[in-house]
Amino acid sequence: MSARITRQQLEAVVTRINVITGNRTNPYTKGEDGKFRANVGCYHLDGAYGGWALYRMNCESGSVNDIFQMGHVSKLDLYRALHAFLAGIEAKNV
């Protein structure tokens, strides 16, 4: 794959992962009291150091797990990892 990967493409795959796993698609939800609460189990992107990672919301306090444990990588590398992860989820659900 030689095309540039966009953030929107990464977000689309992450949304698909969340839908398939029955999770909310946003890591936080704003309550009626105006406070944000973590959506436990939600997968979401994190960008830092010029790269990207897939995180999963771990608990209500907002701590996260780095799913691939490879730090922040290029969009292309993350895109490939996301599709491999998605294929694994889909294979398990067959």
Q: Which keywords apply here?
A:
globular, two-stranded antiparallel ribbon, 35% helix, 5 strands
Rg, alpha carbons:
14 Å
Q: Helical residue percent?
A: 25-40%
Mean pLDDT, to the nearest integer, reads 94
* Oligomerization category of the chains in this entry: single chain
Poorly predicted sequence stretches spanning 5 or more consecutive residues = none
- In terms of DSSP E residues, the strand content is 15-25%
Total E-strand runs: 5
**Helix/strand order, N-terminal first:** HEEEEEH
The number of helices is 2
Q: So what's the overall shape? A: globular
Quick one: biggest sheet?
Answer: 3 strands, antiparallel
- Give the terminus-to-terminus CA distance: 27 Å
Strand arrangement, largest sheet?
3-4-5
Supply the helix-strand structural class.
alpha+beta
Q: What does it look like?
A:
The structure is a single chain. The chain is of the alpha+beta class. It has a domain at 25-70. It has helices at residues 7-21, 75-92, and strands at residues 28-30, 36-38, 43-48, 51-57, 64-66. Strands 3-4-5 form a 3-stranded antiparallel sheet, covered by helices on one side. A two-stranded antiparallel sheet has the order 1-2. Helix 1 (7-21) packs parallel to helix 2 (75-92). The protein is globular and about 45 Å long.
